[in-house]
Design goal:
Elements (H helix, E strand, L loop, with lengths): L1 H18 L2 E3 L10 E5 L6 H8 L4 E6 L1 H5 L1 H9 L2 E4 L6 H12 L3 E4 L17 H9 L2 E8 L1 H4 L13 E4 L13 H13 L2
Parallel strand pairs: 1-7, 2-5, 2-6, 3-4, 3-5
Antiparallel strand pairs: 6-7
Helix pairs in contact: 1-2, 6-8
Length: about 200
């Protein structure tokens, strides 16, 4: 926990210095209880950017390959709350970890698109996000990141300074839509992200 907070401070200073990071409508994030932050995904920077503008402790899923890609990088993302997930095949261990995060009252960052958008547009979402919200009873806060695709484009291997902003929407309670399917709920969520 101490390491997480220390690394988060370093990441915040980094984002302030290079990206003039700005969080808009952070008051929409509940102060108590677990919550899912559902965001668009356009850059490798997105998890770090979100971590810096969301209050205290957050966790997020990251593809398993990132943990073995580089020992330093794997250790870094672990220290800011990442845990591995197999893309296209979510294991029981990953689900248990996600549920434990939410039940302990922490925020869980999720990218419903499943991967980075190569052209910056918001893609169709996968139902995992709303499924987990329905299972645990937590609220979803839609979020939209602006500028991270310019600061660290998908086809580049190095970042450069560029203003980055995160806008948070009003909470989305899937329990209010018990008659809708997972895919219908996912469409509503993605539409809310697009409109931010």
């Amino acid at each position: 926990m101490i390491l997480n907070r220390f690394v988060k401070i370093i990441a915040l200073l980094f984002c302030k210095l290079f990206f003039l990071i700005q969080g808009v409508n952070r008051g929409n994030i509940p102060k108590m209880g677990g919550v899912i932050i559902a965001s668009n995904h356009v850059s490798f920077l997105d998890p770090i950017v979100l971590t810096t503008v969301i209050p205290p402790v957050v966790n997020f899923m990251a593809k398993k390959e990132l943990f073995s890609f580089n020992r330093f990088f794997g250790g870094f993302i672990s220290s800011v709350g990442a845990f591995p997930v197999n893309r296209g095949k979510v294991s029981k261990d990953t689900i248990k970890k996600a549920i434990a995060v939410l039940n302990s009252g922490r925020a869980l960052i999720m990218f419903p698109e499943g991967g980075r958008s190569k052209d910056g547009s918001i893609q169709e979402g996968e139902p995992g996000c709303v499924w987990l919200a329905r299972l645990t009873g937590v609220l979803i806060v839609p979020a939209k990141i602006y500028g991270s695709d310019k600061a660290f484009p998908v086809n580049k291997s190095i970042f450069h300074p560029y203003p980055v902003k995160v806008v948070f929407g009003k909470t989305f309670d899937v329990r209010d839509y018990s008659d809708l399917s997972m895919q219908e709920l996912t469409c509503i969520l993605m539409d809310r992200i697009r409109k931010l």
